[in-house]
Design brief:
Structural class: alpha/beta
Radius of gyration: 19 Å
Strand order of the largest sheet: 3-2-4-1-5
Low-confidence stretches: none
Helix content: 40-55%
Distance between the termini: 44 Å
Largest sheet: 5 strands, parallel
Number of strands: 5
Mean pLDDT: 85
Order of helices and strands: HHHEHEHEHEHEH
Shape: globular
């Protein structure tokens, strides 16, 4: 156990020193800034997922573990603002807490790239959960956090299982007044201009089963940030 912790400490120190070195060298070689921010972003993701696991475990005996995703999103939004230098603004500003007052509902949004996690961290309301591929439940840290905090996992290869999962989600939504966020396109578009892909039916079946509103959230095209 001691040896394992020692290796982990060495890894964290090496990871941190490498990230800081790339940051300091970026004024001389600007392309290194991308790699520095990428390493910092992945490190922040693991840190916040670990925090989410601990928060979920702490809140579960109090039956408040469904707040863990909101609390983790707050920390992720704060830290990623500095590690990536990317922020999302809610327009108009009067809608800052719009999603807070609509529970329970099915929130849907356009899916552009991996940076959508920054959008989710910015807008995530209390008492809300994501849906995710079943395979993610086995991922260390992030998968553990998602499982402990009430994520609805969907088996995309099994239609019967997916319908059952959505039925369970509808029951939980009504019982706990919990909202659910879904990307109805199902996959990232990496669009260079404002476009939408075809929608899968899951989000709308869920809204019908739970008899709740569908609330759309639209993110402006940010291809320029990726480029």
């Amino acid at each position: 156990m001691y040896t394992l912790l020692l290796y982990l400490l060495y890894f964290l120190l090496t990871y941190t020193l490498l990230t800081l070195s790339l940051y300091f060298l970026s004024p001389l070689l600007p392309f290194l800034s991308f790699y520095a921010r990428t390493l910092a972003a992945y490190g922040t993701l693991v840190l916040c997922a670990t925090y989410g696991v601990l928060v979920s475990l702490a809140l579960r005996p109090l039956a408040y573990h469904r707040l863990a995703q909101y609390l983790t999103a707050r920390s992720f939004n704060f830290l990623m603002r500095y590690t990536t230098g990317i922020t999302f603004s809610i327009l108009p500003p009067a809608n800052e807490h719009y999603l807070h007052d609509r529970r329970p509902c099915v929130i849907v949004g356009n899916h552009q790239s991996e940076l959508d996690v920054l959008l989710l961290a910015r807008i995530w309301p209390p008492w809300c959960s994501v849906t995710a591929k079943k395979s993610l439940a086995r991922m260390p840290f992030l998968g553990w956090f998602m499982a402990l905090s009430g994520t609805v996992f969907i088996d995309r290869a099994n239609n019967a299982s997916a319908r059952e999962a959505f039925a369970g989600a509808a029951k939980h939504m009504l019982e706990y007044r919990q909202s659910v966020f879904i990307f109805p396109e199902g996959t990232r578009s990496y669009a260079r201009e404002p476009v939408l892909g075809g929608f899968k039916k899951g989000a709308f079946h869920l809204a019908v089963q739970a008899q709740v509103d569908v609330v759309p959230v639209v993110s402006a095209c940010y291809w320029g940030v990726l480029a």
